[in-house]
C-alpha cells in the first residue's frame, strides 16, 4: 500500500533537506520526498504542523538481555520500548547468557527479533569467546550470521594485544570495534564517580582517568591498525579530549554519549533521593565539568552518536544496597525527550544535527541501512513532536524494567510516531497522531 | 525523667529531633546536636547511680541489627537500651550468609512486620540505613554504614570534647589517619564544622577523599602542621590490609610519617586531648605512650558512648510521651 505523509517538516540531513515536504511511502520503502506531491492513489496522512519527519532513529547501544536474562527484558519488550521511544532500529550488546560469541546465538536473536516484528535488531558480537578476553570469538561466523560490530561491552577488551588483533581482524569484514573504555586497575570496586559526592556518601570512586586511559589505548591502536574504533558511552572530559585529539590526527575514531551523561551529574547520587540505585551506572554520572564537556562535544561535532546504553534491571536487583546494585538504567523511552529538551531547546544543537547524532551517524558507523529518507530507502521514519510536554512515568514504560532516574521529570519534546518498514508501530495521540489510515 | 542539665553557654533551641531516624550527622541541625549532647548529660548521671536503670523506654522494642562484627558499638548500644528499660533483641548476621539468603530489604520488611520501635543498624554498605529508612516505619539509628557515617561515634566524641573544653566553637581539631575509608571521619567532619570547630584532616594523599576542602576542612599531609596548637587530636584506625591496596608502603613507614608520638604531641596545646574511636593499632597510628598517657581520653569516649546512645534512643523512641510515664 501507498501512504503520503503530508505537510510535516522533513529533516533529512543526508539529502540536505530541512523544510516542509511530503513523503510518499510505497510498501516498505520511501518512494519520493518532495513539495506538494499528488496523492495519486495513496492514502493521505496529514502531519500536524510543528511535527518533524526524520529518518528512523537508531540506538546503537542497547542491552536486550535475551537470551538468558528475560526477567529484565526480552527482545519483544525491548523492541516495543524502542519503537515507543522513536527508535526504528537498535543494536544489541553481546553480554547475554550465553554471550553472543557464536553464530547460533546471533541467529537466535535475529529469529526472536523477526517474531517480535517491531524495531529492527542488529546484533553486536563479542570480541572474545565468552567475552573473557583470552581468545578471539569466531568473528567471521558472527559477521556472516548478521553481527554488525564487535565488542566485549560490560568490560574493556582485556589486553591491548587482543584489542589490536580484534581491530585488525574485524577490519577485514569492515566491522567497527566498539569499546567499553576502562582501565580495570583504576576501576577497582568503584561504584560512583570519584568526586565530592561519592566521598561524602562513602562510595568507592571511579576517576575519569579510568575511562580516558581506555580511550587513549583504543585511539592509539586504531591509529596503529588503521581500523575503525568506536568509544561506547563516553562520560569523562579527558575522554572527550582524547577523541578530539585522535580525530584531529586523522584516526578512525568515533564516539557516543548517553542522555544521562549529558543530563545528570554525580549530584544525583545525593539528591533528591540519597543512594538511589537508579543513579548507578558504569561509566558513572560524573561532575558538572564532565557533563559540560559532553554537551560541548555534542555541539562541536566531536561526538558522533547519542546512544542510550539501555540497561534494564529488575526492581529486585536494584532494591538493594547501593554497592550491591547492578550498574545501568533503561533509556530507550526517555532519550528523544532528553535530547530535545537538553540539546535542541537548550540551543546546543539544531534539529538536523540531532538527526545526524541519532540516525545518520549510527547507520554510517554500523554500515546498516537507514539514516536517510532517500528514494528506495527502507521506510523507517521517526516523527518528532518537539514542543510536546512529556512527563516521564516509570510505571508506564514499555520496557520490562522500570529502572530510570527520570521518573516524574517534565521534559519538552517527544515522539509522535514511529514507522518501521512503512508500518506505523507507535502512535502518540497526545502529539496529534492517533490513527493512521 | 529529670530535666537535662545544661553545662554550655546556650540552651538548646529545640526540644526534639525532626526525623524519626538518625542516619547521619549531615542531616542534623546544630541545635539538634546540642539537644543530644545536653540530653546525654542527664543520661550520664543515670549511669553513675547504684541502680542504673530508668523506665523511659519501658515497653519499647529495640532491634540491634548488626551485619558487621562489632564489640564496642553493639555493647554500648545494648547497655544504653537496658538502662532505659527497652526490650532489646540482637541480630548478628554474617554478610556472607546474606549473599545467599534474603535481601536487606526483605530482612527489614520481616522485622518491620513485628513492629519494633527502633532498629539500630550496622552494615558494610554505605547507604544501607537510607534503604532501611525508606522501608520501615520504625526509627533507624545508624551504627555505622560502610564508609559513610557513624553518627553516634561523632556525638560521643563531641560530648567528650565538650565535657573538657566546655564548647566546640573555635577549637582546632586535627583528625589523622585513613580518611578515605573512615565513616568516623565523615560524621566528625559534619559535626565539628556545624559546631564551629576548626577542623584539620591529615593523612597520606592516597587516603585523602576527593575534594576534601569542599567539606569545610583544611587538608594537609604534614602531621606537624595538623598537630600545631591543636586542642584535640583524633586518630583514626589504619587497617592493616590497606598496604595491599598500595595506599602506603608499610606500617613502619606510616608510623614514621604520621604516627602520634610524644615528640609530635609537644607541638599541640598543653591541654590537648588525644582521642581514638577504636580499635587501636598501637605502634601504627598511635604510640602506646600516647594512648596510655595523661592526654588520652580514649576510655572516657567509651564511657560517654553509653550516655550519648541513651540520649539518641530516648529522643527517637521515648520523647514526650514518656515524660509523664516516668
In brief, what are we looking at here?
The complex is a heterodimer of chains A (437) and B (326). Chain A is of the alpha/beta class and 437 residues long. In chain A, 30% of the residues lie in helices and 23% in strands.
The SS-based structural class of chain B is: alpha/beta
CATH C-level category of the largest domain in chain A: Alpha Beta
Straight-line distance between termini of chain A: 11 Å
- The proportion of strand residues of chain A reads 15-25%
What does the largest sheet of chain A look like?
8 strands, mixed
Rounded mean pLDDT score of chain B: 91
Q: Can you lay out the helices and strands and say which pair or pack?
A:
The complex is a heterodimer of chains A (437) and B (326).
Chain A: E1 2-12, E2 17-26, E3 29-34, E4 43-46, E5 52-55, E6 57-62, H1 75-84, E7 87-92, H2 103-116, E8 120-123, E9 125-126, H3 139-145, E10 149-151, H4 160-172, E11 176-179, H5 184-187, E12 192-193, H6 196-201, E13 205-206, H7 208-225, E14 229-231, H8 237-248, E15 253-257, H9 259-263, H10 288-300, E16 305-306, H11 315-318, H12 335-344, H13 351-366, E17 381-391, E18 410-420, E19 423-427
Parallel strand pairs in A: 1-4, 1-5, 6-7, 7-8, 9-10, 10-11, 11-14, 12-13, 14-15, 15-16
Antiparallel strand pairs in A: 1-2, 2-3, 5-17, 17-18, 18-19
Helix pairs in contact in A: 1-2, 2-3, 4-7, 7-8, 8-10
Chain B: H1 30-47, E1 61-66, H2 72-83, E2 87-92, H3 95-100, H4 104-113, E3 118-123, H5 128-135, E4 139-145, H6 151-165, E5 172-176, H7 183-194, E6 198-202, E7 218-220, H8 223-227, E8 232-235, H9 251-258, H10 262-265, E9 273-275, H11 288-291, H12 298-318, H13 320-325
Parallel strand pairs in B: 1-2, 1-3, 3-4, 5-6, 5-8, 6-7, 8-9
Helix pairs in contact in B: 1-6, 1-12, 2-12, 4-5, 6-7, 6-12
Amino acid at each position: 500500500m501507498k501512504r503520503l505523509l503530508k505537510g510535516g517538516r522533513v529533516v533529512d540531513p543526508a539529502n540536505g533537506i530541512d523544510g516542509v515536504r511530503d513523503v510518499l511511502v510505497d510498501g516498505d520503502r520511501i518512494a519520493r520526498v518532495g513539495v506538494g506531491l499528488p496523492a495519486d492513489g495513496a492514502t493521505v496522512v496529514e502531519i500536524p504542523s510543528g511535527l518533524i519527519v526524520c529518518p528512523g532513529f537508531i540506538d546503537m547501544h542497547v542491552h536486550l538481555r535475551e537470551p538468558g536474562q528475560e526477567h529484565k527484558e526480552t527482545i519483544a519488550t525491548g523492541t516495543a520500548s524502542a519503537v515507543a521511544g522513536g527508535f526504528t532500529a537498535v543494536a544489541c550488546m553481546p553480554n547475554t547468557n550465553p554471550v553472543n560469541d557464536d553464530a547460533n546465538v546471533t541467529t537466535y536473536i535475529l529469529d526472536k527479533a523477526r517474531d517480535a516484528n517491531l524495531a529492527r535488531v542488529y546484533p553486536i558480537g563479542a570480541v572474545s569467546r565468552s567475552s573473557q578476553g583470552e581468545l578471539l570469538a569466531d568473528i567471521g561466523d558472527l559477521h556472516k550470521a548478521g553481527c554488525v560490530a564487535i565488542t566485549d561491552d560490560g568490560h574493556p577488551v582485556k589486553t591491548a594485544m587482543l584489542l589490536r588483533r580484534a581491530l585488525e581482524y574485524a577490519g577485514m569484514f569492515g566491522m567497527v570495534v566498539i569499546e567499553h573504555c576502562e582501565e580495570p586497575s583504576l576501576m577497582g570496586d568503584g561504584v560512583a564517580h570519584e568526586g565530592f559526592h561519592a566521598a561524602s556518601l562513602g562510595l568507592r570512586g571511579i576517576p575519569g582517568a579510568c575511562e580516558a586511559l581506555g580511550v587513549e589505548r583504543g585511539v592509539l591502536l586504531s591509529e596503529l591498525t588503521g581500523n575503525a574504533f568506536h568509544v561506547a558511552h563516553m562520560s569523562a572530559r579527558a575522554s572527550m579530549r582524547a577523541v578530539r585529539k585522535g580525530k584531529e590526527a586523522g584516526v578512525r575514531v568515533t564516539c557516543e554519549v548517553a542522555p544521562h551523561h549529558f543530563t545528570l551529574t554525580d549530584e544525583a547520587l545525593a539528591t533528591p533521593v540519597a543512594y538511589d540505585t537508579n543513579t548507578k551506572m558504569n561509566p558513572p554520572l560524573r561532575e558538572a565539568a564532565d557533563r559540560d564537556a559532553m554537551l560541548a562535544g555534542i555541539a562541536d561535532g566531536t561526538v558522533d552518536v547519542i546512544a542510550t546504553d539501555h540497561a534494564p534491571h529488575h526492581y529486585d536487583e536494584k532494591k538493594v544496597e547501593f554497592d550491591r546494585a547492578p550498574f545501568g538504567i533503561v533509556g530507550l523511552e526517555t532519550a528523544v525527550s532528553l535530547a530535545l529538551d537538553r540539546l535542541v531547546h537548550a540551543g546546543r544543537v539544531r534539529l538536523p544535527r540531532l538527526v545526524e547524532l541519532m540516525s545518520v551517524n549510527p547507520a554510517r558507523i554500523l554500515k546498516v541501512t537507514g539514516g536517510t529518507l532517500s528514494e528506495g530507502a527502507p521506510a523507517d521514519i521517526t516523527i518528532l513532536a518537539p514542543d510536546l510536554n512529556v512527563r516521564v512515568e516509570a510505571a508506564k514504560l514499555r520496557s520490562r524494567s522500570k529502572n530510570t532516574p527520570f521518573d516524574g521529570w517534565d521534559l519538552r519534546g517527544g515522539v509522535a510516531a514511529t514507522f518501521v518498514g512503512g508500518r506505523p508501530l507507535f502512535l502518540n495521540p497526545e502529539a496529534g497522531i492517533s490513527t493512521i489510515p | 525523667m529529670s530535666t537535662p542539665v545544661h553545662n554550655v553557654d546556650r540552651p538548646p533551641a529545640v526540644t526534639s529531633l525532626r526525623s524519626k531516624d538518625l542516619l547521619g550527622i549531615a542531616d542534623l541541625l546544630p541545635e539538634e546536636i546540642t539537644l543530644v549532647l545536653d540530653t546525654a548529660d542527664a543520661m550520664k548521671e543515670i549511669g553513675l547511680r547504684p541502680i542504673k536503670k530508668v523506665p523511659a523506654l519501658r515497653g519499647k522494642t529495640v532491634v540491634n541489627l548488626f551485619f558487621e562484627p562489632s564489640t564496642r558499638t553493639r555493647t554500648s548500644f545494648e547497655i544504653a537500651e537496658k538502662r532505659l528499660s527497652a526490650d532489646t533483641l540482637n541480630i548478628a548476621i554474617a554478610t556472607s550468609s546474606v549473599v545467599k539468603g534474603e535481601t536487606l530489604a526483605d530482612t527489614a520488611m520481616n522485622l518491620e512486620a513485628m513492629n519494633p520501635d527502633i532498629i539500630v543498624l550496622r552494615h558494610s554498605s554505605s547507604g544501607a540505613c537510607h534503604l532501611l529508612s525508606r522501608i520501615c516505619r520504625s526509627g533507624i539509628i545508624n551504627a555505622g554504614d560502610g564508609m559513610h557515617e557513624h553518627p553516634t561515634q561523632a556525638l560521643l566524641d563531641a560530648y567528650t570534647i565538650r565535657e573538657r573544653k566546655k564548647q566546640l566553637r573555635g577549637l582546632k581539631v586535627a583528625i589523622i589517619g585513613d580518611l578515605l575509608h573512615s565513616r568516623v571521619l565523615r560524621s566528625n567532619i559534619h559535626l565539628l564544622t556545624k559546631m564551629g570547630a576548626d577542623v584539620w584532616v591529615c593523612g597520606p594523599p592516597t587516603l585523602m577523599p576527593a575534594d576534601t576542602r569542599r567539606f569545610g576542612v583544611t587538608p594537609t599531609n604534614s602531621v606537624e602542621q595538623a598537630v600545631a596548637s591543636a586542642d584535640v587530636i583524633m586518630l583514626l584506625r589504619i587497617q592493616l590490609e590497606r598496604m595491599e591496596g598500595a595506599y602506603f608502603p608499610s606500617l613502619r613507614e606510616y608510623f614514621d610519617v604520621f604516627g602520634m608520638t610524644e615528640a609530635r604531641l609537644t607541638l599541640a596545646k598543653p591541654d590537648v586531648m588525644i582521642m581514638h574511636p577504636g580499635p587501636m593499632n598501637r605502634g601504627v597510628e598511635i604510640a602506646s605512650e600516647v594512648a596510655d598517657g595523661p592526654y588520652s581520653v580514649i576510655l572516657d569516649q567509651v564511657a560517654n558512648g553509653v550516655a550519648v546512645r541513651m540520649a539518641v534512643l530516648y529522643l527517637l523512641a521515648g520523647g514526650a510521651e514518656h515524660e509523664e510515664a516516668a
